[in-house]
Amino acid sequence: MFRRDVQSIKDLIMKNLRMQGLETPLLQKRLVESWPKVAGEVIARYTTGVTIYNQTLFVRISVPALRQDLSMRRMEFVQKLNEYVGAQVITDIKFN
Predict the structure, then answer these.
(1) Number of domains comprising the chain
(2) What is the pTM of this model?
């Protein structure tokens, strides 16, 4: 009798994406799209833009007082966002 190398579809897709160099952009896109869910409805309402550059998430906030409050909690958001995506995608957040 022979053994079959059984792998899940998710593992095969992620392996293929990694080989083609597309895993990181996919994870970055998922992280950017998860900002409203992780930050919450109220914060998302005042967010005007979210981008990633060099493992730093740049978030545009329209209210200066909220921007200052979020700056003090940035490492908490880094941890929550990376946990949500399931990988170490960002290392810092800058609020503009």
Answers:
(1) 1
(2) 0.81
Q: Tell me the pLDDT of the chain (96 aa) as tens digits.
A: 677 888 889 888 888 878 887 788 889 999 999 999 999 999 999 999 999 999 999 999 999 999 999 999 999 999 999 999 999 999 999 999
Per-residue HEC secondary structure of the chain comes to CCCCCCCCHHHHHHHHHHHHCCHHHHHHHHHHHHHHHHHCHHHHHCEEEEEEECCEEEEEECCHHHHHHHHHCHHHHHHHHHHHHCCCCCCEEEEC
Domain CATH code at residue 57: 3.30.300
